[in-house]
Specification:
This protein is of the alpha+beta class. It is built from 16 helices and twelve strands. Bound molecules: magnesium ion.
Length: 435
């Protein structure tokens, strides 16, 4: 059996661990730069606030105290996610993190009763140890486990842990009332095409002829149908597959036309992209730069240039990538525009090991030293936090620094921001209850 543990409203739940006064209130977490809502508590959903609502549209109710918005606190969420993984690993030997708040568990050799009991126990253990509410889906395949988790969240009678065995009447009745676009891997577009063949529910997909699905759609759709029947055929490596491009971009806190600001932002994005590239053991053949003025400000001059700079040879060396970034910016920079966003994309990626094996020309003599330098850089930044060592000194209050005026303290990862008992009414009693 496969288990899927998924935290409920993860970002909001992380905030509530240290701010119990937010329990039961409508709470939202905003994207970088406090732009729009990216996570909502159940109470905020009930107010009809949609995912992606721009924060300024909620200014009124926010100021009247009818709802609460927080800047995203990725240091906290990342750390809670690591703790969740650790806790699960202690209970179950095989854990595969799928996203920041979703982890697959492989429960080989456990029967249904044992799985159900484990699901319930894990929920309690996670609540007790981390104060995170989670739901657990259990099923013979990834696709069914996803669906089981969905129903564990939606129907309270499952009490947070739902088991679908793939063949019983419960599975059949749930699949019959599940729209096909709720199935893992079936997007809206694909659902529209399936509907043309009369496939509108998860059950209809399950009952379809897999050969036909393979011919008309794809092998992935055919496999999804098999997974719904309880036949495992999706490997969990989809998440680990190396990406074909690596993009790092971000909106500025305020618009800017200054060369130093733009270069600073691109420089930072390039360093981050290079780090991701080395993580997936890739080399880039080219770097793309993108700049954007604010499309919504029709009164301002618009300019959305992008440029692609080929690297002299495939590389993962931050310094080579930075040299390309400087060259590219010189090419597209025009003074007099107010830019709102900058991005760096590494494209045309190749696998580092394969490339070295098929290389006709020997790699440059410095290559070994370069690799050691980059590996050391990554190790230091991993150990001491991103940006501990960077190329170039970022000016203080740089324009690309995140605007996060409403971020909660990084309770679990920064000594200076530890939780203090007694800072709000009821905190001491609350802390005592929690211990
Ligand atoms: Mg979740």
């Amino acid at each position: 059996m496969i288990g899927l543990v998924d935290a409920n409203n993860f970002y909001v739940s992380c905030e509530r661990i240290f701010q119990p006064q937010l329990d039961g209130l409508p709470v939202g977490v905003m994207s970088n730069n406090d732009g729009c809502v990216i996570a909502r508590s159940e109470e905020l959903k009930a107010l009809g606030v949609e995912m992606g609502t721009p924060a300024f549209q909620l200014e009124g109710p926010w100021q009247r105290g009818e709802l609460h918005l927080l800047s995203s606190n990725y240091a906290l969420y990342g750390d809670m996610s690591a703790r969740l993984t650790q806790l699960l690993q202690a209970a179950c030997p095989k854990v595969a993190p799928y996203s920041i708040d979703e982890m697959f568990l492989y429960l080989d050799g456990l029967d249904h009763t044992a799985c159900q009991a484990l699901g319930t126990a894990l929920r309690q253990r996670i609540w007790h140890g981390l104060r995170l509410p989670v739901c657990v889906g259990l099923a013979p395949t990834h696709t069914l486990a996803k669906l089981a988790n969905h129903y564990a969240k939606r129907d309270s009678h499952y009490q947070g842990a739902c088991l679908l065995d793939g063949h019983d009447a419960t599975t059949a009745s749930l699949l019959k009332r599940t729209p096909v676009d709720k199935v893992w891997g079936i997007g809206r577009r694909l659902a529209e095409r399936l509907a043309l063949c009369g496939i509108t529910t998860a059950w209809a997909l399950r009952e379809s002829d897999t050969q036909r699905l393979r011919r008309r759609f794809s092998v992935v759709v055919a496999r999804t149908a098999l997974e719904l029947r309880g036949t495992p055929c999706l490997a969990m490596n989809a998440a680990d597959e190396p990406r074909q491009r690596i993009m790092t971009s971000r909106s500025f806190g305020r618009a800017t036309g200054a060369w130093e600001d733009l270069y600073g932002a691109l420089n930072r994005h390039a360093q981050r992209s290079a780090e991701k590239l080395r993580q997936q053991k890739g080399l880039a053949r080219a770097v793309m730069l993108l700049l954007h003025t604010n499309r919504h400000r029709r009164d301002l001059a618009q300019y959305h240039p992008q440029t692609l700079i080929a690297l002299p040879y495939p590389t993962d060396d931050t310094r080579e990538i930075l040299a390309a970034v400087r060259q590219g910016l010189q090419h597209i920079y025009r003074p007099g525009y107010a830019f709102m966003k900058a991005g760096v994309m590494l494209v045309d990626l190749v696998d580092a090991e394969q490339y070295q094996m098929t290389l006709l020309n020997p790699p440059p003599k410095t290559s070994h030293l370069q690799q050691r330098l980059m590996a050391t850089l990554d190790r230091i930044n991993q150990r001491h936090g991103q940006g501990t060592i960077t190329f170039g000194v970022p000016p203080k209050r740089a324009v690309w620094h995140l605007r996060c005026a409403h971020r909660s303290p990084r309770y679990t990862s920064h000594w200076g921001e530890l939780c203090q008992a007694g800072t709000h009414p009821g905190a001491i009693a609350e802390t005592r209850n929690r211990l």
